[in-house]
Amino acid sequence: MFIKIPFLCFLLLAVVSSLSVTDAKAHNAPERKQLRKLSHFNKEGVYFSNLANGTRLNKVTKLSREHYEITISSEFIPTNSSSFFAFQLWADEKKTIKISLKYTEYKHRYIPKLSEDGLIWRPIKGLILSESDTTATFDITLSSKKLWLSAQEIESSEHTYEWLDKFISNKSYIRKHSVGKTVLKQDLFVVSSEQESVKPSVVLIARQHPPEIPGGVIAFKAFFEEVMGVSNLAQNFRKEFNIYAFPLLNPDGADNGNWRHNSNGKDLNRDWEAFTQPETLAVKNFVIEKVKQENKSIWFGIDFHTSYNGPYLLILNEENEQMAKTRIIPRLINNINDQTPIFNQYRRRDQDLPYCYNWFYKAFGSEAITYEEGDETDRSIIKARARLYAKSLMQQMLLELKLK
Ligand SMILES: [Zn+2]
């Protein structure tokens, strides 16, 4: 007990302090809805832009000739501290300036990353946080070449679909089609490999939460490429199982640089009981149709995310694990632990919450996991881990089929 009391006090303090910050600022809210524009300081020859999709910058203020304050707000509050920012910046001539990222609510979270081409990113050095962690200050050297500065790698819907279309272009066994529209009337795509005679199926869901690039984009892509790839294992797997993948469930949020929500200000991963949003409803209708009309059987669901204290997998609680119609997760865990030096952690969580992975269990008796990566985990490890999980899951699902 003596461990729990200080921890409770800490929790209480954290809640009280976060409430007071939010309340105080809520009455004096800045423009949370970001205006898309080029902010230029002609005398100094310094430029900032949030015109590209996937960016987030609410306001630029010149504090001095060499110091610029970037105001960052979440489109909707309350939210969690997924304090996402992204923009481009450059100067007429080479110069070093000071940048302060100032968050109107919540705290700094992600290490700022720089890129010249949007592909290769490097973390900035020498970050100084204010006492309350609401402002992050650092130096940056500009030139006439535009730089990206972002909380995580920039990934708009266009980036995801460009990768997807390229990957599937020479694979006739993969089909991509729209199953509905988002709040802003963007297409919601499902990408599938299926055969009429095959009934067992797996469903993959990615990026309900826009800033969660490590799990929602990097891990998902590597996992998808493995299960949809040309290895013998993947080919054998697809003879026995259908795959239905939703590569980007929140394109509106991704394009608008949202911290958490869809364009209605709803957290999609809390909507898997009420289904009030078009994005979650489209998945539900599609999967239920597959089960009812085509007699498909959902064996496994995976929902890709990223957490401050990841990587880990959220798995079913012990009771539900026993009740599920298959026994894949325990063997998957043993198999991964046996064959890899890569750190793996598993957590069980309350199965009454309206999370996506709980819906798979409740609606179909399926095993399901929430796949969480870490904010700053080495990207090559994220890819290696995802490939390993994909291979191991395919092996264990094929084994389950044999044992049944
Ligand atoms: Zn998430």
From TrEMBL:
Ranges that cross the membrane: none
Name of the protein in its database record: M14 family metallopeptidase
Family recorded in the similarity comment: Belongs to the peptidase M14 family.
Pfam entry (one): Peptidase_M14
CDD domains: M14_Nna1-like
Highest taxon, organism lineage: Bacteria
Originating organism: Thalassotalea fonticola
InterPro entries: Cytosolic_carboxypeptidase, Peptidase_M14
SUPFAM superfamilies, alphabetized: Zn-dependent exopeptidases (SSF53187)
Keyword Zinc-finger: no
Signal sequence bounds: 1-26
Cofactors demanded by this protein: Zn(2+)
Keywords: Signal
Keyword field contains Signal: yes
Location of the Peptidase M14 domain: 153-404
